[in-house]
Amino acid sequence: MSGLRLLLLGAVALIATACATAEPERAATTAQPAPKPPGVPRQALAAPYNDRAQALESDGRLREALQARQIALTINPDDAATRAAAAALQAKIDEQVAVQLKEGRAATQRGSQVVARRYYLTALALDPGNRAAFDALREQTQEVDGLPHTVKARETLAGLASEYYGNRALAEVIAETNKLQPNARLTPGMVLKIPEVPGVTLNRPGARPPAPRAPLPTAPGAPTAAAPPPTPSAPAPPREEPAEVNPLLAEAREAADRLDYGQALSDIDQLLNSSPRNADALTLKKQVLYSQGKQQLDQRKYRDSYATLNQLARIAPNYEDSATLMRQTRTRLIDEYYNSGIRYYREEKLPEAIAQWKAVLEIDPQHVNARKNLDQAERLLKQLDERRK
Amino acid sequence: MTRRALLLIVVALVAWGCASAATPPAPPPAAPVVTGPPAPDVFESPDFIVVIPKTPETSATLAARYLGDAAKAWMIEEFTGAGTFAPGQQAVIPRKAWNPAGVTASGYRLVPILVYHNLDAQPKGRLVQSVSSFDQQMHYLKTEGYHTLTLTEFLEFTRLERQLPRKSVVLTFDDGYKSFKQYAYPVLKELGFTATLFVYTDYVGAGRNALSWADIKALQGEGFDIQAHSKTHGDLRRAPGETPAQFAQRMQAELAQPRDLFKRQLGQTPETIAYPYGRWDADVLKQVQAAGYVAAFTVRRQGNPAFVSPLTIHRSQIYADMSLDEFVKNLTLYQEEDLR
Question: Is B22 contained in some domain?
């Protein structure tokens, strides 16, 4: 009985070895039954991932190599060789991350931001969840590499952006880096820094851009991509890059364009209410008051025109020809008050006439006729009152 | 004799064992009525699931079954580079974020943030964009498979807390124009897009073209993020001749007051701010941080890596006169850099 049992065990062992020699991949998987046996041996299924891991590792792409090993282990968890390779790779990654972090800190300490950035980035490439490298990069002040450019005649920011980045809109970035206004005019001879913009290829005029790297070894003798011809630096038509406008200011301008000066002024005052020093708003206010005063003068609304131009005179006494307009409107307004005073007087409406002449004197205290008429009207009114009593 | 017989049996057994190993396992004899298609081969580990389907699968069907959410299809697509899987074709399903920072040996990922202002039937200047060109741009994003991120998703990315689909973009609208409700909202809704509005509080309900607080609250209820854009839309930087005390007082108004007002009107405090005109300096950064904002947005025209400095996040302004080609130039998703 026991002999028979031994023999049977031997037979099972034999089956195992016999099969192992015939199909080496099979051995590992048959040793331990899988919960759901696959149609193809696990070792064979995992093999491409192991091959890929090796290629990636020799290419220096350790993180991706480790992932390939982990996939191989997902398929074939009991493959001791893969497990060992993964552990060794993990150790190598840990070690390299530590080195990169140390170098990064040292570079930061000696003030080499650009160098430090590269160490930290490399650490993240090895370990994309590395908090220390991530935080260090996050806290770094934005220091980017750039090319110096000496401005030639007729060059514009937009033209340079087109030449270096192939994107005129990046004029803003050149302006910002060089602390210029977005629509600044360039003077020949000034030296600008053309910054690197992440994600955008920086065309280096006169230099071949580096040939694009293939992710994995390419066939030897494969033609390398020819350098794209440098973008022709044709003189670009200068285009203003208007800065963003305060929305209330934009609304005020819109109203002014429609000649709705009342609305425009109310918009401007709303803006000035919260930002009393807004220069654009103050400039627009002067323009609007001037236009409105002039319009009112043309429409013979002398009272309104006088009030508007007075308001303008308080903030800008010598705006355009506002002083002349003011004289005109003042003369006409005085005439208007004076004449309507006469009209009321003739209609025997003394209090109304008195009010008109008083208004004249308020504008022009030296107005002799108004003074004379006013005195006479007041005397007359007094006599009338006394007679009534 | 018995020994000999046994030996024979052993040899026979060996032969049979090998034979059965060499040929595919026979289908289970007298299998009960099979319901549904044959089950795929599945291998699992804490990091990955490897599936060898027996019937055609897509990234969405696999994501629904193995990740519990069809919307996670992008994880499979981006890890395997494939969206459909024929029978027998292996699908590797990452079970969790495998690269939250988006940094690999060949470079790093960028997330573009676009800035819109006002929309109208006809364009006007550079900041009032025509509805038709906006429409075209949004449909371009949809056709190209872009995901629009909520501000929260983006901020989690910048804290190493979330991996994003490769084609991710944040849409932002500055100032708080009524046109957002009238023109942008229907398009975004149609395409299943989300957006963030940066509104400045003096404008809300005041300007003739401004959204009201009621409008904004309704948009918030629809899932749009509402964030701060100062009180008056003034340049926050210290003005020439402004004393430190005046500057501090102005910053109190520009940075703190919107927070209180948001709390009252919307029941939430804004955690981020967009600098008016995109202008900032070191003093402004300090004030913004002291006021309690965790992130702030400029208008520097470039994309954002995960490790972007949180108080100077980049945004690209979209101008009314941009062609579709020019628009697309603002969607760079990757910075190549050899990091080996």
Answer: no
The residue range of the domain holding B84 is 38-98
Q: Let me know: does A113 contact B309? Beta carbons within 8 Å.
A: no
Q: Which residue carries 């004197």 as its tokens?
A: A361
Is A7 within 8 Å of chain B by CB? yes
Rounded distance, CA B63 to CA B20, Å?
36
Cβ pair B340:A169 closer than 8 A:
no
Q: What DSSP element (H or E) covers A136?
A: helix A131-139
Residue A52 pLDDT grade (very low, low, confident, very high; cuts 50, 70, 90): very high
Domain check: are A382 and A257 in the same one? yes
Summarised one tens digit per residue, pLDDT across range A96-140 is 999 999 999 998 888 888 889 999 999 999 999 999 999 999 987
Beta-bridge partners for B24: none
- Tens of pLDDT, residues B217-268: 999 999 999 999 999 999 999 988 999 999 999 999 999 999 999 999 999 9
B24, B104, B305: residue with CB nearest A63: B104
Determine, for residues B330 and A169 on separate chains, whether the beta-carbon distance falls below 8 Å.
yes
ipTM score of the complex?
Answer: 0.84
A325 and A267 in one domain? yes
Please name the member of B45, B207, B299 whose beta carbon is closest to the beta carbon of A251. Answer: B207
What's the CA gap between B8 and A231, in Å, rounded? 84
pTM of the predicted model over 0.80: no
A225 in a structural domain: no
